[in-house]
Amino acid sequence: MFETAHTIRFRHPLPRNVSPASAIATLHHHQNLIQSQALTTTMTNLGPSPELVYDEDPYFSAPSTAPYASVIETWEIKEVVTIIPGIGDWGKRTLLLEVVFQDLAESVRSRATAPGGVTVWAEYRVEKRGSGGAEAAQGEIEAWDIAEEVKVECGALVMPFVKRQMEGAHKDMCRKLCDMAEKGKGKGEQQDSPNEEPRELVHRDSGAEKIRYG
């Protein structure tokens, strides 16, 4: 099958009371990234993956060669996608994905592998306003954004469907991540908001943690 690619970009301004360091900590707490994705229903942390061969995918860097690159962390994620709109649950399908994350100094990179030969690479960055094509307002000082760049590769026949699902799932992620950063939901500073829906711990086994939302 002929392969094709599609790239999308989103960004959202950080609240002025959120420092870049707090926003980066929010990105480095991978559960935030997964939870902010609209299609996710269940996620399992499979822990570090030292066996990953970094040179099999140049998108990632070996920690020995990049001082700010972390060890790869792997998650197993379930998503519910709508195949046929308008018929409720009959038109939905549950997909099982493997997602890997790597923290960098000012960003986090991920790769999701889905059924049907679909691969999605994404990078979430904290950027000063005016970089990445966004213009700062005149006189604005130290304004920052969370920016996202997502690339998907899959067969040409399924690309229209995959593109629609991906754009729907990712279009609001930067805003949600900015909200999480404002609530202090960073790595090492995770807090529960009293207005948030509770999360149910479903299973814990050999360090793997599975959480279901809803």
From TrEMBL:
A Pfam entry, by short name: DUF7053
Superkingdom of source: Eukaryota
Name the UniProt record assigns to this protein: DUF7053 domain-containing protein
Transmembrane feature ranges: none
Positions in coiled-coil regions: none
Domain DUF7053: from-to ranges: 6-182
InterPro entries, sorted: DUF7053
Region (Disordered): 183-214
